[in-house]
Amino acid sequence: xxxxSRNEIEKMHRSGRLLASCHRExxxxxxxxxxxxxxxxxxxxxxRSHGATPEQKGYMGYPYATCCxxxxxxxxxxxxxTPLREGDIVTIDMVVNIDGWLADSAWTYPVGTISSxxxxxxxxxxxxxxxxxxxxxxxxxxxxxxxxIQSFAEGQGYSVVRQFVGHGIxxxxxxxxxxxxxxxxxxxxxxxxxxxxxxxPMLNVGGYQVKIDDDGWTARTVDGSLSAQYEHTxxxxxxxxxxxxEQ
Length: 247
What we know:
By secondary structure, this protein is an alpha+beta fold. Helix content is 29%, strand content 26%. It has 4 helices and 15 strands. It has helices at residues 6-29, 36-49, 116-134, 142-155, and strands spanning 53-54, 67-70, 73-75, 89-98, 101-110, 159-160, 166-168, 175-179, 196-199, 202-204, 210-212, 219-221, 227-229, 232-237, 240-243. The strands form 5 sheets. Strands 1, 2, 4 and 5 form a 4-stranded antiparallel beta sheet that branches. The protein has a 3-stranded antiparallel beta sheet with strand order 3-12-11, with no helix packed on it.
């Protein structure tokens, strides 16, 4: 686990601000009829035109700049040419690299008008993220983040995915520590100023179990239920949690 200086956190914040601006553009772009591959091309062109590179492209052989996870896909969905349809939900996850410093954020978007069930899931998932972030304070422990997310999500009737967790981040996409979104308070690694982590809860309407498609990447709910994810990169500072990827 590496602690970052204020200067290094600011470099990550620069990547995070660009990532947030890209998500703002996606909010306007995502409509019925657009394809995940068109979204992926837009993201790559947007990042490169602003002096950044998409860190996911080429990571362990992954060929795209984004993950595009639709409906029952929990995470790591591969972009394709199937147009998004009215009522879909789609999570766009990206990692931005500027001068070797990374930021990571995912956001779930409604496609046109979505069902009340889907809207409630999106609202609860986003709220669970911010409840977790509120616990990302020096002197707390990772379990305080995990418990805040799990207790809220399950209180709303949703399950929390266990197989995928948040992580430290800096010059590498995945650093220690792992950041689960389920657990007990006052357990786990002590949070210290200079730590930078991702908090990225994935909530399902049904059970938390997931399965991996034959492509080796796409993770979807076993029971076919809807899944949503919201993620921010967060720095632990003396003043409290600093969201580096705020939109």
